[in-house]
Specification:
- The complex is a heterodimer of chains A (161) and B (49).
- By secondary structure, chain A is α/β, with parallel strands linked by helices.
- Chain A has a single domain, classed as Beta Polymerase, domain 2 (2-Layer Sandwich).
- A seven-stranded mixed β-sheet of chain A has the order 3-4-5-2-1-7-6.
- In chain A, helix 6 runs antiparallel to helix 7.
- The N and C termini of chain A lie far apart (37 Å).
- The relative contact order of chain A is 0.19.
- With 49 residues, chain B is an all-alpha fold.
- The longest helix of chain B has 27 residues.
- Classes of the chains: A alpha/beta (161), B mainly alpha (49).
- At the A-B interface, helix 2, strand 6 and helix 7 of A face helix 1, helix 2 and helix 3 of B.
């Protein structure tokens, strides 16, 4: 089971720069869909990558779905050589995005994210309009279902204004 | 396709969810995942017995 609070607190307490995206961000905006993993866009600076590596190292990050024994090293150079990582950790499943299709990276998305307080931590969450945009760009059936709900939520928010 | 998906959405559920704070919505998700996991575990126990 995903320890949502554990992941968020681990990242926030280590001063990792990240933006919540994906299903948990949709939940923040009112989605009632169930999600089990946490998706974040992380800043691709050397310092932030080091903080991210140090924060998650105690939780045994490994490539989700990869066979055991694969020579995967959770270290700074691995993150520098790659971009997006689908991980399993002792805290649960965590997807790291250096870049999101249709949205860009942390720098591009920062101005489209707002601070929210969850699990007693202040974190950035992608705004609903941009969440819709990146999910549309992803284009998988489950993303389009999510877009339908997010657009319905946006309608309801605008109606109540 | 998105418009077709919208027809299946329970808007009253969304309105109720929007009355909550973001923190409360995430707490609801945590509880829902725990409940789903418990149901799945119960199913596995039933199949094994």
């Amino acid at each position: 089971m995903t320890d949502f609070a554990g992941v968020i607190r681990t990242l926030a307490d280590s001063d990792v720069q990240f933006i919540l995206v994906g299903g948990v961000a949709a939940t923040v905006h009112g989605s009632v869909r169930l999600t089990r993993d946490i998706d974040i866009v992380y800043a691709r600076t050397g310092d932030n990558i080091e903080r991210l590596v140090d924060a998650l190292a105690p939780h045994a990050p490994y490539l989700r779905g990869a066979p055991p024994g694969l020579p995967f090293q959770w270290e700074r150079d691995t993150l520098l050589r790659g971009l997006n990582f689908t991980l399993t950790t002792r805290l649960g499943d965590l997807d790291l995005f250096g870049d999101l299709t249709g949205g860009g990276g942390f720098v591009e998305l920062r101005s489209h994210a707002s601070a929210i307080r969850i699990f007693d931590r202040d974190v950035l969450c992608l705004d609903i309009e941009w969440l819709i945009r990146v999910k549309r760009a992803a284009g998988r059936p489950k993303d389009l279902e999510a877009v339908a709900e997010l657009e319905a939520l946006l309608d309801e928010m605008n109606r109540s204004d | 396709m998105i418009e077709a998906y919208k027809k299946g959405i329970d808007r009253s559920l969304l309105r109720e969810r929007l009355k909550k704070t973001p923190a409360e919505r995430v707490e609801d998700l945590v509880a829902l995942v725990a409940f789903a996991d418990e149901l799945a575990a119960a199913g596995r126990r039933t199949r094994q017995s």
